[in-house]
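Form P-L/3: holo structure prediction, ligand NAP.
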Amino acid sequence: MKRALITGVTGQDGSYLAELLLEKGYEVHGIVRRSSTESFERIEHLAGKIHLHQADLLDQLSIIDVMKESDPHEVYNLAAQSFVPTSWKQPVLTGEFTSIGVTRVLEAIRLLGPDRIRFYQASSSEMFGKVQEVPQKENTPFYPRSPYGVAKVYGHWITVNYRESYNMFCCSGILFNHESERRGREFVTRKVTDGVARIKLGLSSELRLGNLDSKRDWGFAGDYVRAMWLMLQQDQADDYVVATGETHTVRRLVELAFAAVDLDWQKYVKIDQTLVRPAEVDLLIGDPAKAKAKLGWTPEVSFEQLVERMVKADVARLQGKPIPDFKARGI
Ligand code: NAP
Ligand code: G4F
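OUTPUT (holo model):
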């Protein structure tokens, strides 16, 4: 039986990836941080099916210990401080585990199984920042625009470096924004769908947002974790852009989300200058041609379907109904 270790298993992507790997017959291990409150909401339904280990990307020995305990064939490094605005408030901490944390995981693999453990690094389209090319490809130069983006560039290059220095099987997935009903509520898609649901149910009267003009290439998280797994099943380790190849403004996201519950967004949305970032990433649109050709990967959920399913899930949640399973694609 194949064993996989996921850092960031309590996050959006970690929860979908754990489900995918269980479906594929893996023994799944996950790293969790100690907290005074358990933040295991996204993986509650996997209790008893996956093995949890306490460790922290800030602590080298804890990672080595977990690597010994779980003895994985594949390691997926998804843990990070992943919210861009927080990276301006906590730039040092963001760098500590979003960049140096990657080296700690790679060092543990180098010590314990450089020839047999395959490694996936969660790189990000935020690395393209002030974009130097449209659409963005694997070889588009990086120009990060936040401490988070800068930290991810380090994580990306140290992954490439361990592949080239030690011939380790290390892949970097440059993933564009991907969302779901499990997305943290601070990110714009979920903030909007949750806000729309609250307004529809009379729980709120307005939605405060920052820049409506920025454009993102948004896909569904359940589709994107498939690409991560596919990368580690290839004969050669490589880096891939994972994206839909479509871009939409935040304004279009807002229009669609309010329309899903028959409301006019202009009556409820207020622009709040405090939510505008010190440096913005104006336009992201990825070219997934390499992932499609080499991995046979293709996204299955469209932007419109994604927004509608997220709004419906938030309305249902706020009405006290359970959040639908991620495979309920019918919306
Ligand atoms: P997320 O929901 O914010 O999850 C982040 C995970 O990292 C959580 O499980 C968190 O644990 C864990 N973590 C944070 N700091 C840690 C530390 N010091 N030690 C151990 N674990 C720690 O993020 P996501 O959306 O699933 O994204 C997964 C990865 O993909 C991240 O690296 C993100 O930067 C990257 N990425 C995401 C996207 C996207 O659109 N979603 C796009 C490109 C790249 P707690 O639950 O304890 O906080
Ligand atoms: O949803 P966001 O916060 O995501 P962002 O900054 O693009 O980062 C996400 O995607 C990256 C991949 O490109 C990941 F690496 C990263 O970890 C994270 O998952 O913001 C999207 C856009 C931005 O242009 C922002 O300025 O929405 C704009 N926006 C407008 N009003 C807002 C708001 N964003 C947030 N979070 N909240 C607002 O009120």
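COMMENT: Residues 325-331 have pLDDT under 50 and may be disordered.
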